[in-house]
Specification:
The complex is a heterodimer of chains A (312) and B (63). Chain A is an alpha+beta fold. Chain A has 8 helices and 17 strands. In chain A, β6, α2 and β7 form a beta-alpha-beta unit. In chain A, α4 packs across α6. Chain B has a two-stranded antiparallel sheet with strand order 2-3. The two termini of chain B are 28 Å apart. The chains are: A alpha+beta (312), B alpha+beta (63). The interface between A and B is large, with 55 and 41 residues.
Chain lengths: 312, 63
């Protein structure tokens, strides 16, 4: 039985898991949807009430019947490397690839349906609260007056993107930023704006959950630092103990979300409360493993290597 | 109208630095010029920041 990994060639975080699977002798096929059609190929046939699919990549062929698991790590846009790429061709290719794969009984990390839902920040906040996390007050609005009132109510607020930075050139970063008092909120009418009460933090926490196994890492924040991803403070990620209350909340959240993999970001305040900031269903773990030595790639490989469940 | 958050946008500094490894389809791994897997060089990966939560965010929003 084969593990299918959907990712780009350059992704060395994938390499960490591939090496683990190689050590176990688990067959795998690494395929970038961007290479389909072209370097990668697909054929799916509907016969007698079921789809039977073959995928090829770099000379390897795998049948959908022999898939034990599918890891959606960092796939390229379907057909992005085609000689004449287009949005239409990407949509066609995505339908063919993910439609065929969703018809298998393979286990997903994570299933596209759950992944799409889990990316939605408003959904995250609601289910984080339901799961028992502490969630900072948040507003998403296109009304300048609402934004102004929110900032007035909470004093210090941050602004953050809902969907991340724009893709393409020129390369732009949109770090979470503190909104200064007296700021003009007129631009809020120009696009949905997410404002959140600022959490003065003494550390950033990244908790990676792999099939229920939890790996927490902590990095001391610099004074006044808002977005832990930006700015070299000289601090490093270190392993952290997961409080029982957090472990229960993570268990509930991933269960509600249907996620086999999730990377949670928290801000730890002066009272040691872990404030939920976001949960990234495809979040990076390479940097955490490299700095802490936590065996996250081993955990991912172990999950992927399990035999699939029976027919649905 | 310019969206509010654009007031806080930052330009990323220059294009990504070239990486000293390349994908090898036989191994399904990225290999260094001497044939070792790129992941065997921990210091290199940390220096390149290719595994951080902002790496590749121009093409992927799952960080």
């Amino acid at each position: 039985m084969t593990v299918l990994i959907l990712t780009s060639h350059q992704d060395v975080t994938t390499d960490m898991v591939v090496a683990e699977l190689h050590e176990r002798g688990v067959p795998l096929v690494r395929l970038d949807p961007a290479d389909l059609p072209g370097e990668a190929g697909l054929s799916a046939e509907y016969v007698s009430g079921d789809f039977h699919c073959y995928l090829s990549a770099d000379g390897r062929m795998v049948s959908s019947k022999s898939l034990r698991s599918i890891w959606v790590r960092r796939p390229g846009e379907p057909a992005a490397h085609a000689p004449e790429p287009s949005r239409w061709l990407s949509a066609e290719t995505g339908q063919a690839l993910y439609g065929a794969l969703c018809s298998t009984t393979a286990r997903w990390m994570n299933h596209p349906r759950q992944a799409d839902q889990a990316r939605l920040k408003p959904w995250q906040l609601r289910f984080a609260h339901r799961s028992g996390f502490a969630v900072p007050p948040t507003v998403i609005t296109t009304f300048p007056r609402v934004a102004e009132q929110f900032a007035g109510q909470y004093g210090k607020v941050v602004v953050k993107s809902l969907s991340g930075p724009p893709r393409g050139e020129p390369a732009i970063a949109l770090p979470t930023a503190l909104v200064e008092p007296g700021t003009d909120f007129a631009g809020v009418a120009g696009g949905p704006t997410l404002l959140q009460r600022y959490v003065p933090k003494r550390a950033d926490i990244r908790l990676t959950c792999v099939g229920g196994r939890m790996f927490a890492a902590r990095k001391v924040s610099a004074s006044g630092q808002v977005d832990g991803r930006y700015g070299d403070t000289g601090q490093v990620w270190e392993p952290a103990v997961v409080p029982d209350r957090i472990a229960r909340a993570v268990h509930d959240y991933t269960g509600l979300a249907g996620l086999a993999y999730a990377a949670f970001d928290f801000a730890e305040d002066a009272e040691a409360v872990w404030w939920f900031l976001e949960c990234n269903q495809g979040g990076q773990f390479g940097f955490v493993e490299l700095e802490t030595g936590q065996p996250i790639a081993e955990a991912v490989a172990s999950w992927l290597a399990q035999e699939p469940r029976g027919p649905a | 109208m310019r969206p509010f958050i654009w007031n806080y946008a930052q330009h990323n500094e220059g294009p990504d630095a070239p990486v000293p490894y390349a994908y090898n389809s036989a191994a399904q791994l990225n290999l260094l010029p001497d044939g070792r897997p790129a992941i065997s060089d921990r210091e290199l990966l940390l220096a390149l920041s290719t595994t951080t939560s902002t790496a590749g965010s121009q093409t992927h929003f799952d960080d």
